[in-house]
Amino acid sequence: MVTKLILLTFTLVGGSLGYNVFPDLIANWEDAPNWLLHPIIGMALGAVIFYLVSLTAVKPIEKAIGKVEKVFSEMSIAYLMFGSIGAIIGLILALLFSYGLNALSIIFISDVFPFILTVALAYGGFQLGTSRREEIRRLFTPKITEQENSDVLERKEGDTFRKYKVLDTSTIIDGRILDVVRTGFLEGVLVVSHYVLKELQYIADSSDSLKRVRGRRGLDILNALQKEKGIALEMDDSDIPETEEVDLKLVHLAKKLDGMVITNDFNLNKVAEFQNVPVLNINELANAVKPVVIPGEEMRVMIVKHGTERSQGVAYLDDGTMVVVEEGKHYVNKMVDVVVTSSLQTNAGRMIFAKLSSDQKSLDHRKDANG
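Below the sequence we write its predicted structure tokens.
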């Protein structure tokens, strides 16, 4: 269909040029026969010539059209609409300025400068419309009637509350964000950048089976978040050309929205903090809500493997907390009673150190005997 349209366009253009231009060209030829001066003959010759030219030009034109279609297919409707509106406003401003410049009748300023101004204002209007479309959309969105507690979600910049929470790829793949949302501890709007969506799709299409499962899990979590009624989920299609790294793009996006970044990535956490962007770390939240244990507390655990030091055994609580048991090496795959001796909090999580209850009871018995 595209090929036929290109051939038809070339034929019509050639026929039109032949009808209007060919008779004037032939008129300069003194020995030209009279029948060549007829416009219909010129139209036919122009149509044939341009048709033959189109046969060689049709493939490059089809490739160019395909590239343009691919570019536009990757853009959202909102992006194109706001960009077009901005470009139209730029063209209108350029037209108004051109009237004044043409009246000056100065070489270059009256002839060439209006064209440069038109291109610059059209491009600037397109960029402004696409980069600020969320702000423009909010200007025309009717405000909901204020209620008694409406000021909770409408705080000004500088308050601790941030309406927009930008999700990174690791948080979505991890999946615990869905459970946090369902508990109702998060408020505001979750924002997913199209860069994160592309990264998830790339992981889901990976040849590595483990990565493929993780990517598909992330896409499932996104779909589940979108269906949750307790919180809003929005897609952000804005371009962030300042950097190529997806994590840094999310930091720039959070700055632009005056929002926060939700992540599990320790490095992204540090980068965001360095740039004064608030961060919600799911790992830190998980560590904060783990039950507190104190020295002397007793618990029953299963030793699952040997520890790094000699005679140590390692067990895990239901929440994943590691328990290092002294003299637990000989009790692998057995349930034992232990007494907590100390705990250590690290960035990776919490570790609990304990010893066997039988050893503690023996030690207490010796103390009583000596005392």
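The radius of gyration is 35 Å.
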